[in-house]
Design a protein that fits this description.
- The complex is a heterodimer.
- Chain A is globular and about 45 Å long.
- In chain A, strands 1, 2, 3, 4, 5 and 6 form a six-stranded mixed sheet that branches.
- In chain A, a hairpin with a 2-residue loop joins strand 4 and strand 5.
- By secondary structure, chain A is α+β, with helices and mostly antiparallel strands.
- The longest helix of chain A has 14 residues.
- Chain A is built from five helices and six strands.
- By secondary structure, chain B is an alpha+beta fold.
- Chain B has a seven-stranded mixed sheet with strand order 3-7-1-14-11-12-13, with helices on both faces.
- Chain B has 26 helices and 30 strands.
- In chain B, strand 25 and strand 26 form a beta hairpin.
- Helices cover about 35% and strands about 25% of the residues of chain B.
- The chains are: A alpha+beta, B alpha+beta.
- At the A-B interface, helix 2, helix 3 and helix 5 of A face helix 1 and helix 24 of B.
Chain lengths: ~180, ~850
């Protein structure tokens, strides 16, 4: 439970990309401004600031959320993943790699939101159909691509991310990875 | 997809070099830039479309803790020069105006004051405290009201709201129309639309305290235009002071005189072509003599300005633009003025409500068209009345006046016409500025391709028959459009149409259509064929803007770095097009180096070559593609010259492979490019320009299938085909991305998006819940087929960015009319949301 400290400021503690963060913020500060301006995580983009475009999507306790519509205060105690926490070191996350391979994005301002939405999708549904991918991504706007390349990329990512099943020995793309 | 040529990068879908940065959140968009000690701006904007400003009270806002300054229009008059919009159209009224409204507001969202505070939160709080006393004026909400002489002039100097009227005729229009079997008339209206890139506009005026210089970070499509506009608008000083400052700068004046003379000599042919422009400009000055004073003060101020006071523009990653970020925002000038006034860096990132309201809107045009046609379907001529509503303020530097001339030039398309007349009228209204939006001249494509279907229906022939009957075929080329530009032998619009007809399998579709009709479903198919200047032949520029050719060529510098890597310097401003990849492909092929060793450098006005056109007009692939080819070739020659000494071999025997120079056939004995760079001592740089050469057309045919549901009014697109020819493809995946993205915007424009105003010019679409950008659910799979016309032309690359938005609106609306033809429906407006479909079909 959070408590409001002096004059509308508030102390909070949360985990961002695996790192514990403690901060004092104004109660009205949005989560997106907190991430971008206070923590310097500028990969989270602000496209509309009214919850429609999805560019600011981050993962909060496993679910994709609009960081422009949440107050930083609402993330107190939460585990937050932003686009900066998706790749491990220099290696792209398989979803990022698949979108790169598919020429998924153009200006890529929307990319962080799409990538994190896809991350949540594949965690809850590891084998989505193309129609399911299309529907799940429909909460994110892209103005450049007409979406086909993004859907192609996420579809290709399914094979890369999917854990191997006993009757389906899995060696993701070993054969053609250097093609 | 076209096969890649072995050993060449051009022609292959090389993965984007931008991606590792952009897909990991490590891009640097303007909103991500925060210089130390930066302050934040918010604008006070007019809630009324048209009003006199009686007074602005900033006292409460200024007194708020954390607020550094509140500047108004009166401050702008004090601190800045006005925007002196201009265009060489005889009789055009081009107003001058300041960054902030001075005595009246002309649109909802018109900036009245800029508030600078320690945080954006505080700036927005304080903006609420600025009290503006408005005296409302009757607004002009439609082009009909604008044309009414009784309407209140938005620009009193214009004497009315019609800012330009002109007539252009080609051929003997009266005789041709008199000779025709029939004249068929219709009127077409295109609604207001908006670019709406996912990133809004935004800028930071950074004051470098140590150097005292202004660095202007901005999401701009044209960094050099922004730099020089800001240099001219900011730092106002009296003429006498500029003259005094100049007197102490004899050397600079001499250099300027030499440069001016050289420019005049180099561009004599173009200046002669444009000589009539001087008279037009003189007339515009005399109509409003205050322009002379402001122009003299601005130009002298610019000339006298110490170079350290000329801003440096820095643009990094840009989150889309589609034309809107080619304009210089009034907000940009206000930010500069505020930063210079305070001596502090000031940041402003537009919010979506602002961007929807005043960020820039487009279209809002009407065309009345008469077509002279013979009974057998031979089209003889067009007579067209065009009206463009350019909104409240002219867009700087290019807006409706320029695009009206492209509309004029392109209206005949690739059809044989004997006569063409265009009456053009540009009006002002109390709506947002009219900006470039992907294919800014597209009203001519939509009207022509829509009208061809209407004519075909009237004559009882099919839409494809009327097109094939009138379109230039390959054997007739080269030919001249009746408006002037040459259609060269590579112009392949008809090839794309013929291939599209083959793909569409019309007999099979007719059967499906009948079967569907029996089930109560309405299927339709629509075609649209166009060619676009990408960038067009030299006589295209002559028609659009005589003398404009000198603005046309594109520069590039390709340089060898000390470590053997290569940098390509360009004034183009990529914002999603993948220039860092495509032009690295071109340079790498020319030089024989791996793509990883080529870096495309853009965005900073200190290091990139000068150019005033920026990214737009489908220039990059053709003009920059050629300039990179030739500048890299120049560099290659210099590299080989040095290597021939190092290897003691003749230049003719050398080749570069994988970044190593060696004697052909003797790969073991090499020198690396780093060795060459060390040997050269000074940096080797190849520089060249390219104007696009002859030809320069891209062309395509779009085919759209629709399934119209008369229960809901919803239009589904089960299939969409594009057959296009943009010359040699540098990177097919990038080309296809451009095509799909353009089509998606066309689908949005027709079925979803509208920048709605009420009858009092009050804006009604200020959120993404009102202005409906299509999602992944609304955009179908789009099939793309390439036609590549054989050519021995080098650098046979042409632009492809705008075509999707040219072809989609006519293909979709033609398909909808086809689907509803049995109900006698004729589609004359471009916006077809479900309610309008149901109204047209007589359901509601």
């Amino acid at each position: 439970m959070t408590t409001v400290e002096r004059g509308g400021d508030l102390a909070l503690a949360l985990t961002v990309n695996g790192v514990e963060v403690a901060a004092t913020v104004e109660v009205r500060r949005t989560l997106s401004d907190f991430l971008r301006d206070d923590l310097g995580l500028t990969g989270t983009h602000l496209g509309c600031e009214h919850g429609v475009c999805g560019a600011c999507t981050v993962v909060l306790d496993g679910r994709p959320v609009r960081s422009c519509l949440l107050l930083a205060a609402q993330a107190d105690g939460a585990d937050v993943t932003t686009i900066e926490g998706m790749a491990e070191g220099d290696a792209l996350h398989p979803i990022q790699q698949a979108l790169h391979d598919a020429h998924g994005f153009q200006c890529a301002f929307c990319a962080p939101g799409f990538l994190l939405t896809a991350l949540c999708l594949l965690e809850t549904n590891p084998s989505p159909t193309r129609d399911e991918i299309r529907e799940e991504l429909s909460g994110n706007l892209c103005r450049c691509t007409g979406y086909a390349s993004i859907i192609d990329g996420v579809e290709a990512a399914v094979a890369l991310v999917k854990p191997p099943t006993p009757d389906e020995p899995h060696a993701p793309n070993e054969e053609d990875s250097d093609a | 997809m076209r096969e890649a040529i072995a050993g060449k990068l051009v022609g292959s879908s090389v993965k984007r070099v931008e991606d590792p940065r952009l897909l990991t959140g490590n891009g640097r968009y303007v909103g991500d830039v925060s210089p130390d000690g930066v302050t934040h701006a918010a604008f006070v904007r007019s809630p009324l479309p048209h009003a006199h400003i009686r007074s602005v009270d900033t006292s409460r806002a200024t007194a708020m803790p954390g607020v550094l300054a509140v500047l108004t229009g009166a401050d702008m008059v004090e601190l800045t020069n006005p925007f002196l919009s201009f265009f060489f159209l005889d009789g055009l009224y081009t107003p001058l105006y300041w960054a902030l409204a001075t005595d009246r507001v002309r649109m909802v969202g018109d900036p009245v004051a800029i508030v600078v505070a320690e945080s954006r939160y505080l700036a927005e709080d304080a903006a609420q405290l600025v009290e503006v006393d408005y005296d409302p004026i009757e607004p002009v909400a439609t082009m009909e009201q604008a044309a009414d002489p009784a309407s209140e002039p938005i620009w009193p100097g214009a004497g009315g709201n019609v800012l330009y009227e002109g007539i252009d005729t080609f051929g003997d229009v009266d005789a041709v129309f008199a000779s025709a079997d029939r004249v068929i008339r219709e009127r077409f209206d295109s609604h207001r639309q908006s670019n709406q890139p996912m990133e809004t506009r935004g800028s930071i005026a950074e004051i470098d305290r140590e150097a005292g210089e202004l660095i202007f970070h901005s999401a701009t499509q044209s960094s050099h235009v922004l730099k020089w506009t800001l240099a001219m608008v900011t730092g106002k000083q009296p003429v006498w002071r500029s003259l005094r400052d100049l007197a102490g700068q004899r050397d600079k004046l001499k250099r300027f005189a030499v440069a001016a003379k050289e420019f005049a000599t180099t561009n004599k042919a173009e200046l002669d072509k444009g000589s009539a422009n001087n008279a037009v400009m003189a007339k515009q000055m005399l109509k409003e003599p205050s322009r002379i004073v402001h122009l003299a003060r601005s130009m002298l101020g610019l000339l006298a300005k110490d170079s350290s006071r000329i801003p440096e523009v820095q643009a990094d990653d840009i989150g889309g633009a589609f034309g809107v970020k080619g304009a210089v925002g009034r907000e940009d000038a206000a930010l500069c003025a505020a930063a210079l006034h305070l001596g502090r860096s000031v940041k402003w990132i537009e919010d979506r409500n602002e961007h929807l309201t005043i960020g820039g809107q487009a279209r809002d045009e009407s065309m009345d068209i008469e077509v002279a046609v013979n009974g057998d379907g031979e089209i003889l001529g067009f007579r067209v009345n065009l009206t463009i509503d350019q909104g409240a303020y002219p867009t700087f530097p290019f807006g409706a006046p320029l695009f009206s001339q492209v509309m004029k030039t392109m209206m005949p398309g690739t059809y044989r016409l004997k006569a063409f007349q265009l009456d053009t009228r540009i009006v002002a209204s109390n709506k947002a500025n009219y900006v470039a939006y992907r294919g800014p001249w597209s009203i001519e494509t939509w009207t022509r391709e829509r009208m061809l279907d209407v004519v075909a229906r009237e004559l009882g022939i099919t839409p494809t028959e009327i097109r094939l009957r009138n379109m230039y075929g390959r054997s007739e080329l080269p030919a001249k459009m009746i408006t002037g530009p040459t259609l060269d032998v590579r112009m392949s619009a008809r090839d794309t149409l013929e291939k599209a007809i083959e793909i569409a399998d019309l007999p099979a579709f007719e059967q499906q259509k009948e079967a569907a009709r029996a089930e109560g479903r309405c299927l339709g198919i629509g075609f649209a064929t166009f060619h676009e200047a990408a960038p067009g032949p030299p006589d295209f520029a002559d028609t659009v803007l005589p003398g404009g050719g000198m603005l046309g060529s594109e520069p590039a510098t390709t340089a060898l770095n000390a470590d053997g890597s290569v940098s390509v310097y360009t004034q183009q401003m990529p914002h999603g097009q993948g220039h860092e990849t495509t032009f690295a492909q071109v340079a790498a092929d020319e030089l024989g180096v791996p793509i990883e060793s080529v870096k495309v450098v853009f965005g900073n006005t200190r290091v990139t070559p000068f150019g005033i056109m920026g990214t737009g007009g489908s220039r990059a692939s053709s003009m920059l593609g050629g300039a990179v080819t030739y500048s890299a070739r120049d560099l290659r020659q210099q590299i080989l010259d040095h290597a021939s000494t190092l290897l003691e071999a003749s230049v003719d025997d050398l080749e570069i492979t994988d970044g190593q120079v060696h004697v052909r056939g003797v790969p073991a004995i090499t020198v690396s490019l780093a060795d060459v760079a060390a040997d050269a001592g000074e940096p080797l740089r190849g520089t060249d320009t390219f104007d696009g050469g002859e030809g320069g057309w891209s062309q395509a045919t779009h085919v759209c299938w629709v399934d119209v549901d008369l229960e809901t009014g919803f239009v589904r697109i089960p299939r969409y085909v594009v057959v296009e020819d943009c010359g040699e493809l540098i990177n097919p995946a990038i080309v296809e991305g451009q095509v799909r993205g353009g089509v998606a915007q066309g689908i949005g424009a027709v079925l979803y998006e509208k920048a709605t105003y009420d009858d009092q010019a009050q804006f009604q679409a200020g959120t993404f819940m009102d202005y409906l950008i299509p999602t992944s659910m609304e955009i179908p799979e789009i099939e793309i087929h390439h036609v590549e016309t054989p050519s021995d032309v080098e650098a046979n690359y042409r632009g492809v960015g705008e075509g999707g938005m040219l072809g989609a609106p006519p293909a979709i609306t033609n398909a909808v009319e086809d689907a509803l033809a049995h109900l006698g429906v004729r589609i004359t407006e471009q916006h077809l949301p479900p309610t309008r479909i149901l109204e047209l079909a007589g359901v509601i």
